[in-house]
Design brief:
Largest sheet: 3 strands, antiparallel
Number of domains: 2
Bound molecules: zinc ion
Radius of gyration: 21 Å
Helix content: 40-55%
Shape: globular
Structural class: alpha+beta
Strand order of the largest sheet: 1-2-5
Oligomer: single chain
Length: 303
């Protein structure tokens, strides 16, 4: 990871992203930014995809990740009204990972969730502008990000943090009428991104369905990148390609198996189970009765 020299720092960055209370797509974008994996003009220039790497907004500096999301003068209108961000702007950071660490160090006086959404909106806007699509005005991003955050359902138990370097998989198996047949949680250690966690959850869900003797299977997940990759049978991604290959192999063992994207709000039980992985056991499985604290959520998800 650029700008990261110690395992502790990688863990801090990972935990800082995983514990965000924002949609997966925002976590995924922040994770890619910290790994210098966004297709900025500098990154495209390195691969000879573009010849000019000058930022389209300010037309004066090269567009690397830090510039695109933070240092471009066109973005100052977003940072200057906030005393803390204005102060952070004075520091020179060499990578987005360093910027993210600085943000985490100041989380006592910053809304990190809001800032993550702002970064995501800046990047989405930048892509829309490049494609010639209608784009939000930069000065309106903060207000829109607040609105976006206020509408995002925070999962029950979200105040709890996972042990360092861990993520939880939460899986619910339902029958055709929505009744729960089985549920499980599993803790995984130091996955490299939220997308990897979702891919692992899909693989575990198919194994669990197989163990329960299911013959047909409809898998619902809320990480668009992963569901799309499975549907398109894309197995080349260096992070999760192998896991997707496993998912496809397992899927072939069912008479019928399909994959679809659901909104997080329709996936409350799975998310609560994922958070429940914090409670000590590496693996917990329920097949005939559900734990009392998730039973009420089951009805909510099927509504
Ligand atoms: Zn610029």
């Amino acid at each position: 990871m650029p700008g990261c020299s110690t395992q502790g720092k990688i863990q801090a960055i990972w935990n800082g992203i995983w514990n965000l209370q924002v949609p997966h797509k925002v976590k995924h974008m922040i994770w890619r930014a910290t790994h210098n994996a966004l297709p900025t003009l500098c990154n495209l220039g390195r691969r000879n995809v573009v010849s000019c790497v000058r930022c389209w907004s300010c037309k004066s500096e090269s567009e690397d990740t830090v510039h695109a999301l933070w240092k471009c003068s066109s973005l100052f209108v977003l940072w200057e009204p906030d005393g803390v961000l204005k102060k952070l702007l004075r520091y020179n950071v060499s990578s987005f990972a360093d910027l993210w660490m600085m943000v985490l160090d100041n989380r006592h006086c910053l809304d990190v969730n809001l800032l993550a959404i702002i970064f995501w909106m800046i990047w989405s806007r930048r892509n829309s502008v490049r494609l010639g699509e209608a784009a939000i005005e930069i000065r309106k991003i903060r207000q829109q990000a607040r609105l976006f955050l206020s509408r995002f359902p925070r999962s029950p138990g979200s105040e709890t943090s996972l042990p360092k370097g861990s993520a939880g998989l939460g899986i619910v198996i339902r029958d055709g009428s929505g009744g729960v047949v089985g549920a499980m949680t599993e803790r995984v250690h130091l996955p490299s991104s939220p997308a990897v966690v979702e891919a692992m959850a899909c693989r575990r869900a198919l194994l669990f369905a197989q163990e329960l003797g299911c013959v047909d299977c409809s898998v619902e997940g809320d990480e668009e990148v992963i569901i799309n990759s499975i549907v398109a049978r894309e197995v080349l991604n260096p992070e999760y390609g192998q896991v997707i290959q496993d998912v496809l192999t397992l899927a072939a063992g069912f008479q019928f198996c399909n994959f679809s994207l659901v909104k997080r709000i329709g996936n409350t039980v799975a998310h609560f189970l994922a958070r429940k992985a914090v409670s000590g056991h590496e693996l917990q499985v329920w097949t005939d009765s559900l734990p009392a604290d998730i039973a009420p959520l089951v009805t909510r998800d099927t509504l």
